[in-house]
């Protein structure tokens, strides 16, 4: 079971922080004390060489100054420069943060350092007894210095999150969700709904029901619609979020298509590995991630693949508008198809299919597989 903080920021966002408990903090403190003792021994050795032996008052004064600088200045300096980490905390994987989750500053580190030297550990702390007792009594493992400075020690090395699972559309709500005006849904409310659905199985039934209805009412008020009768709150929220994601994907794909077409217009047909517009590009099938479910057809600008490369078979789908291809079993060419007129190599009536040469001349070849194509950016996943 993981211990997590229950802190809330000023924007009413619950922080999901792994607080550091007594054992990990004690290990980090022990490492810091070893470093401080090594620095203190080195300072005393340097003073014995630099200060005359007969001047005991000066030697005692310098020892006290170095003692305070090392015991107080060391944690203050490191926690200020590294945003809350001393050498011991770096080794254990801990960090000091503010209670609102932000990084600490010099004043926070100074208050923690002075309180640690005077109250928690050395002067009045009975070699750490006060810090241990206060930490055990605190739900977040905070000592006196943390309470005075408004700080909290958290763990940085936590298991990687797998992220929120993909939310699917509940059956039967596709048509209802397609009519919603989702531009009125705030991003923070959508994020709260997604977090609720991700933790739905971890909540108690009464807690999930109450929280789900509360979120469903907020989402319904924002969209100007009520929860459909007989639909549970989790299904209502899932339908809204799934439709929102579908529209975001459709907009991203349209922007990608526009960028590709713009790049083709700048580079030119047949240059930089770009094929001729509308040729050799297969569209997404109906119901795919970016298809148009209403029309059941791929988006505009994408052509259907032919049954055979360069030759139209009898009974196959007709070529797209704007293609230059002779019709099968037709004596007259299509208007504007680019087929030579009568007397100039026009195919005869009743011909089953064009000759290989005319097909090769009519259809420009697609780039060979493996040819590098310079796309303006990667399509959305």
Short overview:
The chain has a two-stranded antiparallel ribbon with strand order 1-2. With 381 residues, it is mainly alpha-helical. The protein folds into 2 domains: 22-155, no CATH class; 165-300, no CATH class.
Give the topology, please.
Elements: H1 22-50, H2 56-81, H3 87-92, E1 94-98, H4 106-120, H5 129-137, H6 144-149, E2 151-155, H7 174-178, H8 187-198, H9 205-223, H10 233-267, H11 356-362
Antiparallel strand pairs: 1-2
Outline the structure in words.
This protein has 381 residues and is mostly helical. The chain folds into 2 domains: 134 residues, no CATH class; 136 residues, no CATH class. Helices cover 44% and strands 3% of the residues. A two-stranded antiparallel sheet has the order 1-2. Helix 8 crosses helix 10. The two termini are 34 Å apart. The C terminus is likely disordered.
The total tally of domains equals: 2
The assigned structural class equals mainly alpha
Trace the largest sheet across and list its strands: 1-2
Number of helices: 11
The major β-sheet equals: 2 strands, antiparallel
Low-confidence stretches: 269-381
Relative strand content = under 5%
Q: Write down the overall geometry.
A: elongated
**Looking at the chains present, what oligomeric state does this protein adopt?**
single chain
Q: Write down the overall mean pLDDT.
A: 73
Radius of gyration: 36 Å
H and E order: HHHEHHHEHHHHH
Distance between the termini: 34 Å
Q: How many strands?
A: 2
Helix content: 40-55%
